[in-house]
Amino acid sequence: MADSPGPGRSRLEPIFSPQSVAVVGATRVPGTVPYDIFHNILKDNFQGTIYPVSPRERSIAGVKAYKYILDIPDPVDLAVIVFPSGVVKLAMEQCGQKGVKGVVIISAGFREVGPAGVQREEEIKEIAQKYGIPFIGPNCLGVINTDPNVHLNASFARRMPTAGSIGFLSQSGALCTAVLDYAHAKHIGFSKFVSFGNKADISDIDLMLALKDDPATKVILMYLEEMTDGAAFVDAARRVIHETGKPVLVLKSGRTQQGASAAASHTGSLAASDEIVDAALKQAGVIRCQTIEEMFNNAIALAYQPLPKGRRVAIITNAGGPGVLTTDAAIHERLELATFSDRTRDVFKRSLPVTASSRNPVDVIGDARADRYRVALGSALEDENVDGALVILTPQSMTDIDAIAEAVCSVASKHDKPTYSSFMGETDVASGIAILQHRHIPHYILPESMCRAFARAHDFRSEKDRRFSPAVRFDDVDTRTARTLLDTAIAAGRTYLPPADAMNVLAAYRLPVLPSAIAESADDAASVAAKLGFPVAMKVESDDIVHKFDVGAVMLDVRTPAAASAAFTAILANVRVHQPDARITGVLVQRMAGPGEEVILGVKRDPAFGAVVMFGLGGLFVEIFRDVAFRIAPIPPEHIRGMMHEVRAFPILTGARGRVHRDTAAVEECLQRLSQLAVDCPQILELDINPLIVRDQGDGCAVTDARILVAADVGASGNAAGAARNS
Description:
The two termini are 25 Å apart. Helices cover 39% and strands 20% of the residues. Helix 7 packs parallel to helix 9. By secondary structure, it is of the alpha/beta class. Among the domains are: 136 residues, Succinyl-CoA synthetase domains (Rossmann fold), CATH 3.40.50; 77 residues, ATP-grasp fold, A domain (Dna Ligase, domain 1, 2-Layer Sandwich); 130 residues, ATP-grasp fold, B domain (D-amino Acid Aminotransferase, Chain A, domain 1, 2-Layer Sandwich), CATH 3.30.470.20. It has 24 helices and 29 strands. The protein is flat. The strands form six sheets. It has a seven-stranded mixed sheet with strand order 9-8-11-10-12-13-14, with helices on both faces. Strands 24, 25, 26, 27, 28 and 29 form a six-stranded antiparallel sheet that branches. The longest helix has 19 residues.
């Protein structure tokens, strides 16, 4: 369980590094999961003692079997349970009585199969808690530790992976088998390899923190199907990255907008689950990957080579076309072509053929042999203007592929700058690729992937060294008033706050709300407007009307008392035509904001991550282009600015193409205040400020309309950790 005190490596030690293992449910029947798990532990040279537990067998593969785990005379560190789900409860109880220190439950038939399975899962959790047994699973592939002092393959994978510095954690067991096969073909090794299944006890967060403290692991890879405690995950990942410098790479499935159509606000409809996950992982510094290939492309770069200190790359190729393609890919990934020093260019002119290019990319010509690559790569890496090298080879008739691969490996090993390779092709270059992979030079079939991996490695170097300020907390807010307004609406059975109350909630947090009042008649509208000061905007006050413009229930730039009276009458008439059943409590009269750019701010309460804050430009930008950005509250100032710059249309606010520079500092403060409101008031399910009018630089901004969806007993746990961190 992620919230258990001190999960860490020590709690998982009996699972990762047991001195004795009992396979509970072992069998002599080939082709079954229990058989394969027992034989994997046996044949893959586990360094401890193994005990088969089987009610029917006296021995398995020449090893004495025990009817029950209680019959084993010696202590047992780890039990691997492979009985059918209906028997797991009994097996777990006996493990507790035996004093087993850790359990892996391979068996399926629990939460994933429905209510009966949920009950069975709860029962084994209760037993585990009673005896204090940490367990992985159920419904998982198992656990692999390649440490030569342990060498444990407690899984039903087809092979034991080679040792390496990459830790892999997966919610899917079936995916694990495919990944192991893929990694074997690429000569990629692992430190730890864990399938955690239903994570009924030990979670993905626990395992990530365990690998944080694992000296054999340099890079952590994770495949996730669900994120049940997103805020805790973000905190844990940030700890891993900033305390140890270990990269965390995540492949998260389920990139659809499930349920978005049912959302009641712009923020709710735009903040689909995947956008929220994306924002959260970005905020944590995690590298999110879209495919398994991309994950491992990044992983080998991060695990095998030094992190690049900058974006300046030297491209070395024996063919002009691939050099140009690599240049295009590098620029696309915001890399820079290094400008070589005079000394480096002199070396190139002396050492390379006259037909070769001494500029970047360096074309060593199609007949290049190993010595030419050696000179070009070595000189480039010695150049102080170069942060890393990208080596390309195309297999031509005279190309000594293996010798060039050896030369690349030899030169790269003498420098503290990264070298990546792309030996283009498959069959002819296979032996050279194998040399590169065995010598830990990251290899990519195509240059585009190579450039992308280099860029991610550079981004990670910047991320791991970045330090963030705590989220800003304002002392001038009136939390009590805001909560009272929200609680009153909930007690009255309202789904939405009345517009005037919504504005008052924002005003309690000192957001720049325009003066307004409710008019209940045409004469009242004229009087209210005159008191507020012209020009005014007028809009119907009704819980039943979501899009007021669509029904003619908004009048802007009203400039006289007579016009205000007429606008009141027209608004009610339009509503009666378009939505006759709508309940109307009056017309909101509000002072006009004046000229400026429209932006939208919002909040959505996510069950996994808590309060999510949104920013985007209004109008077409949000309605059609979905040009918005998200962050998880509470938001550090650096991430506030980051989400603003993430919006593609943001330059409109900063004077692009001769436009007026708007007050972006005021928008930043509004987002900070909104983040605090979202954390302090978990009653807010969704919130829109749409639009916020941003005036000229130094003139502030103004809230013209707000909509707040409320709910009782909304869990605030998603932001609890972050709030505590920033208090």
